[in-house]
Amino acid sequence: MTAESGSLLMLLAMPFMQRALLAGLLSGALGGLLGSFAVLRQLSFFSDALGHSALLGLTLGVVLGLNPTLVLIPFAVLFALVVSTLVQRSQLPADALLNIIYSSSLALAVVALSQVPGYAGGLQNLLFGDILGVGWIDLLLLALVLVAVVAVMAVNLRSQILLSLDESLARSRGVAADGQRLLFVILLAMVVVLSIKAVGVLLISAFVVMPACGARLLSRGFRSYVLLASGLGAAGAVVGLLLSAGLNLPSGPTVVLVQLGGFLLALARSATVAPAAAATAGWPDPAD
Fold first, then answer.
1. Which structural domain, as residue segments, surrounds residue 35?
2. What is the pTM of this model?
């Protein structure tokens, strides 16, 4: 046994590493699951804005001396609902409005945190992730959100699929589009903020989007697409954590690079598929 493998085995035996792997598995699966819907609805930039703006909620928790995660969840949900309403009612292009919101929120939060004594080092962890610092409360919240997301999506799967593929068709089939959209935004906000500890504020959008894009290239049906996106997200998070531990690399960026590798493999695989099959793989069929 080499020194590197022995060191990795020692790390795997430590509780903090076990918690980190479990958190990566849960957050990766959640990111892939909701990311599969977000990509089809062109909400990837929305998740990016949520991630950047979440730093304001973390700042609020630090300033008040409270657990930042517990403050961040209600903050992010409220923020997501307000931003969703603004995007729908504003005459500005959605991407421009979201760019204004997330860049100004990030700037304000960084300036505020820089004034908190002794928090300069913690700022880097927030920006790029510190999954090794995951505690039992974080794991409990991730597990509860996973159960909630699976339950909600199972009950509303048909409506969410129709809304993702064709909103006009969904409305004609009696789907309450506005309510379903708000429900999805709330779930997405919760997943984004709980995944920030894994990859940080600056990388959260890639964490959500890349597994879904890779799965879309490989899947021929909607249900297989969603399941594969969730599996790729979980696998990418776990493999990235193991690589970061074994090679002494930063965990968040390593996870995202592993997910990038998975996406590139899916892209290479899809290029070898016959054009007709590739077209089917690119547009999941709700009847699958």
1. 3-282
2. 0.78
Domain count, the chain: 1
Average pLDDT for residues 221-244, to the nearest whole number?
Answer: 89
* Long-range CB pairs of 177-181, under 8 A, 24+ apart, other chains included: 180/156, 181/84
CATH code (residue 213):
1.10.3470.10
Alpha helices in 90-221 (DSSP H): 94-114, 120-128, 136-155, 157-165, 167-172, 177-199, 204-218
Please give the Cα distance from 201 to 108 (Å, whole number): 14
Residue of 197, 106, 211, 109 whose CA lies nearest to 145 = 197
Domain assignment of residue 287, yes or no: no
Angle, alpha carbons 10-15-18 (nearest 5°): 85
Question: Is the pLDDT confidence value at 100 over 70?
Answer: yes
- Note the pLDDT tens digit of each residue in 194-205: 787 777 776 777
Q: What is the largest CA-CA distance in the chain?
A: 63
Element spanning 48, H or E: helix 44-64
109-146: pLDDT as tens digits: 777 776 766 655 556 666 666 676 777 887 888 888 88
CA–CA–CA angle 249, 61, 199 (5° rounding): 20
- The partner residues of 192 in beta bridges, in order of sequence, read none
Comparing 25-34, 79-88, 125-134, the range with the smallest average pLDDT is: 125-134
Q: 247 lies in a domain? A: yes
* pLDDT for the residue 5: 54
As a whole number, the mean pLDDT across the chain is 78
**Which H/E stretch holds residue 257?**
helix 251-271
- Asked whether residue 288 is domain-assigned, the answer is no
8 Å CB contact between 101 and 49 = yes
Cα-to-chain-centroid distance, residue 192:
5
